[in-house]
Amino acid sequence: MLVGSTIFADKTFTLVEARYLLLFTDLDRCLGYSWGAAALVTFYRYLGDASMYSCKQLGGYPTLLQCWIHEYFPTVGKRGENWKPADNCGLPRAMRWSYRQGVLKVDDLRPILDELTPADVIWRPFEDHRAWRLFDEICLYKGCLKWGETVVPYMPDRCLRQFGYRQYVSSPPLDCMMATDIDVDWISYHQSVIAVIGSSTVATTPSEVEDGYLEWYYCVSHPRLVPPHRDDPREVPVPVYDAGPSDPDWVRVSTLIHRYLRQVNAEEEDPHFANLFEALHISRSH
């Protein structure tokens, strides 16, 4: 059940690969396995497959992706909160959310994703958990991860904002086919950590980036999911965002206010909008 239907679930639905039996020849050793890393490798591989147009199903541990979306994008999707993570540090993080059937389809979600701003993202959702579990700098290891015969790239320099650093233009993708000795790279991970954060500085606001990053990103990525209503290619303007509050608690407050205003269809010029943010700034000054 654990291996075949949960963390290493594949697309056979009812079959489990025989190679997993070797993991349980000595049950006393199971607690020492890095189950999280193995689940991450497996899921990365399936996400790579799902990025192909011909792929119709996603394998792996989808609860991991679902909870990640809930943590970072609180305005996307329909769900409720059972409890605050800081008050229930002994329970699995996934139990924080209670799932309810939504009515939005893929076509409905695309414009919602296109309209996201930095204020709609919780860049560092696990800060309230640091009192129980400190951040481990091994998370900034850059290299290849391996589980069995599966090798995938792990590149934290592409999402530095979730680690509290200013995002810069990342290096080209890793070629896992060229990986020689992953175990040695993993043991000497401090070298890659220095390389990852050496080109950045600590962010003063959660969504802060280095100069030129947004211009680069909008040139190499697909910034919009909804295509324009015309055949001519268009130039995508690089948005200029307000820096916003640096305190994570005030970022959450700002996000909740924006969410409420969208629900009541309020515009920024609306007096209710101005009153809410005036009260927010007065509270911050006190």
Automatic annotation (TrEMBL):
<protein>
    <recommendedName>
        <fullName>Aminotransferase-like plant mobile domain-containing protein</fullName>
    </recommendedName>
</protein>
<dbReference type="GO" id="GO:0010073">
    <property type="term" value="P:meristem maintenance"/>
</dbReference>
<dbReference type="Pfam" id="PF10536">
    <property type="entry name" value="PMD"/>
</dbReference>
<dbReference type="InterPro" id="IPR044824">
    <property type="entry name" value="MAIN-like"/>
</dbReference>
<feature type="domain" description="Aminotransferase-like plant mobile">
    <location>
        <begin position="1"/>
        <end position="217"/>
    </location>
</feature>
<dbReference type="InterPro" id="IPR019557">
    <property type="entry name" value="AminoTfrase-like_pln_mobile"/>
</dbReference>
